[in-house]
Heptaprenylglyceryl phosphate synthase (Planococcus chinensis), 235 residues
Amino acid sequence: MIVDFQTWRHVFKLDPAKTIPDGQLERICESGTDAILIGGSDNVTLDNVLDLMSRVRRFTVPVVLEVSAIDSVTPGFDYYFIPTVLNSSDPRWIKGLHHEAIREYGDLMDWEELVPEGYCILNPACKAAELTKADTALSTEDVLAYARMAEHFFRLPIFYLEYSGTYGDPALVREVKNVLKETRLFYGGGVDSAEKAQEMAQLADTLVVGNIIYEDLEAALATVQAVAETGKQSL
Ligand SMILES: CC(C)=CCC/C(C)=C/CC/C(C)=C/CC/C(C)=C/CC/C(C)=C/CC/C(C)=C/CC/C(C)=C/COP(=O)(O)OP(=O)(O)O
Ligand SMILES: O=P(O)(O)OC[C@@H](O)CO
Ligand SMILES: [Mg+2]
């Protein structure tokens, strides 16, 4: 199936390390969201990725693996999103693991399916920040420089402002959006209501909703409608 992530406005992120009953998964997949992103920062295994992918594949929604561990990569996804953490202080998470993976599997890769994402992680308490030793004490100018670096220097298709677990700063999201022209701005973190979804969807190109799926399914589902109602046209 040919799908275009450049038009996605709302995405649900499912964590393969967490359990979700079939009925709830069906409501998420049939919600009208633009895609299901499967990924997490720990306890991601080939078994739990395969299990979740096969369950999501019963529905027509596009499904993406956001790679955080090379041994959990399996065929069958529409895309493979590959994070590079621009504000990590450890080169392994910027390009080291990527180099290892490409050295090992470069001959087998379908490059059209691989989509690099330039992450900027801003919640110091989230697991991804701890894992990647992200420098989260950033000024607005620092973050804007990462965004410009993503677009003009590395020419990344996605710049991902990651506040996983906490709601971010709308003023900063607005400033980042204003400096990006080609690169798509993903926002994720702490969206747990229609109001927050609407606010961030007016600023970012694509809104990612994760943890609330497991805490309050109705609130998670309400974010889909809220984004649809923002009226903002995707770039
Ligand atoms: C079809 C087929 C088999 C093809 C094979 C092709 C292939 C091997 C492709 C892979 C190519 C490649 C270059 C892979 C890179 C490998 C790799 C391990 C890169 C590192 C990625 C990275 C920087 C991970 C860091 C963690 C991170 C940023 C994860 C993103 C997701 C995230 C932040 C989730 C939130 O986590 P969560 O667990 O929900 O945390 P909370 O508690 O905060 O909610
Ligand atoms: O889980 P939440 O806080 O919704 O964040 C979504 C996503 O950006 C996590 O990688
Ligand atoms: Mg999570």
